Amino acid sequence: MEYTVEGLERSRNIGFRQGDILGLVLKVFLNLSNDLRILDLGCGSGFFTRIIAKQCNAEIIGVDINERLLDGARKLAKKEGLNIIYEVGDIRNIGDKDNSFDIVMCDVVLERFQVITTPLSEMKKVCKDGGIVVAIEPFYQSFIEYYPETDNETRNLLLKFSRADRNFGLGPMLPESFNSVGLKNIDFVTWFWGDIGYKILEFETKEEKLQFMEENLKRIKKFLPDSKQLQKEEQLKIIQFYEERLKFYKENPEKLNRDMSVRGMPVFIVKGYKK
Ligand SMILES: C[S@@+](CC[C@H](N)C(=O)[O-])C[C@H]1O[C@@H](n2cnc3c(N)ncnc32)[C@H](O)[C@@H]1O
After folding, report:
1. What three-state secondary structure class fits 249?
2. Helix, strand, coil % over all residues of the chain, rounded to 5
3. Ligand 1, from 11, 26, 65: best to mutate by most atoms within 8 Å of Cβ?
4. Which of 240, 227, 248 shows the shortest CA–CA distance to 160?
5. Chain segment 77-87, per-residue pLDDT in tens
6. Greater confidence, 131 or 7?
7. Residues 23-69: tens digit of each pLDDT
8. Cβ–ligand 1 contact at 113 (below 6 Å)
9. Cα(135) to centroid(ligand 1), Å
10. For ligand 1, atom 26, which residue shows the shortest CA distance?
11. What pTM was estimated for this model as a whole?
């Protein structure tokens, strides 16, 4: 998948939501303080580096294999007046940084590896003794899609659609993987990644919300025929549901602000200590 700064920021702003709640959860769970060195691997547009930088004055380094995303990350951090270093690097071979960081983290990066013990061992290697390794991964199989105005049959179909053809979703498997590379005192919290209601988010307009729904519909139409788990008839019903919804909100844009749907899934935030 080709990641863009805009796509990553949008999905994070919707799923993790703007504001400080996630930052405060991380602050408590990871015991964030000013004297730490923190490494975020596969940082993309730097969403997590910025969330953490707002919670403490630690030295924060974001690393990604994609230079273009790092350019965007630098601009966003600068815009918010945050002092974060961004460098090109590979989570599979982080280089000459052994025992260097108090916290080594990554969000939705491990899922791309068939065997995650290689990147996880690398994360452990660059972590200081007593430091924390953190991985954040969703559990797609628990995706929930709830719209009060839909009947049970449609609701069940939407649920099936959310889970179809998605076998990845490492979240609940992370503790076992952490254990297998020798991390200790493993613990986790979960975050509900999701969009609550059709609310216009604080960073968008009604037109942008409608445009997003339209683009989403186009995406669904494009990839649904590839589904191995949804019958043709089910695919058509799903498309019809999204088309009718878009039509309804185009005709009634004022209703975009009603707060009545829940759409999302648990994301596991797992930590383990090196020694
Ligand atoms: C789903 S995005 C997550 C970005 C960011 N962690 C976030 O949550 O906003 C996955 C990121 O992993 C990066 N990536 C993929 N393979 C990588 C590798 N081998 N080493 C470092 N980064 C990698 C991609 O460039 C992309 O930015």
Report:
1. helix
2. 45, 25, 30
3. 65
4. 227
5. 999 999 999 99
6. 131
7. 999 999 999 999 999 999 999 999 999 999 999 999 999 999 999 99
8. no
9. 12
10. 44
11. 0.91
